Amino acid sequence: MTDQFRAIRLTKSDEGATQAALETLGLADLMDADVTVRVEASTLNYKDGLAITGKAPVVRSWPLIPGIDFAGVVETSASDRFKAGDRVILNGFGVGETWHGGLSERARVKSDWLIKAPEAIDNARAMAIGTAGYTAMLCVIALERHGVTPDKGDIVVTGAAGGVGSVAIALLSKLGYRVIASTGRVDAVGDYLKGLGAAEIIDRSELSSPGRPMGKERWAGGVDAVGSHTLANVLSQTRYSGCVAACGLAQGLDLPASVAPFILRNVTLAGVDSVMRPLADREEAWSRLSRDLDLSLLDQMTTTAGLADAIPLAGDILAGKVRGRIVVDVTR
Asked: How far, in Å, CA of 309 to CA of 320, rounded?
């Protein structure tokens, strides 16, 4: 095992600007924890784009290796839960924010943050899923737990061409739901979204402007990765006893909504966090992904990039130029 490895490293300039570079580091540069992993694949999520470009204060420890996800093979372990050779996945827990992350050939993390990879999902596909797909699964589980079954009506998915949206559509359609996909790129991604299982596509402009406190009932539930006016409008148009799973803020952190849908239509807003989920939740979500996600559809929504490519792609993902999922092959 060589002591050196390549990683993207974020530093701050004297003016406070984020600088990203591909560098060669040593194992001594990693933080102290009980499991060292040879990373085989990582990915780019919206949060990674914010971290690498410095567009939002995601990074809170400097210098830092970004990347909130990785999949790889355990090299050394002081934990009873893992041994050398185990395939593992990490999502969240401040990795890529306050702890060195997955855009690197090596990672050293706390064993409590890791889960064993499902046998049916190889490391590249695990990162095609990544936090975005894992979050989409958590959203679907939230809808199910609130009684939103396929017979209750349509499900709207906002930010449909992004990572969360793409996987959510694939999951929901396979589970028998009729999915309405909301996107700002109807002409460019319409065929792509229909290929994932969307039954209907609407322009995001229908939801992204200020709306009425209560609108016409259109869907039984939703998966929202956008926030702001979009989430407010989704809530206002949700049917009686419906549920909306909210997990993102691409439009904004604000929620300019009314209490009307909650107290007049018994609508539930289910917040979905993927960063600090307990082990049981993480294992359930990944078990469900191995069973409920059509891996051929996952392959259709996935592109692969090298480690150095992650830096320019970070800007593209924020600009809405990325469709589906990006796997970062850290070995190239």
From this structure: 17
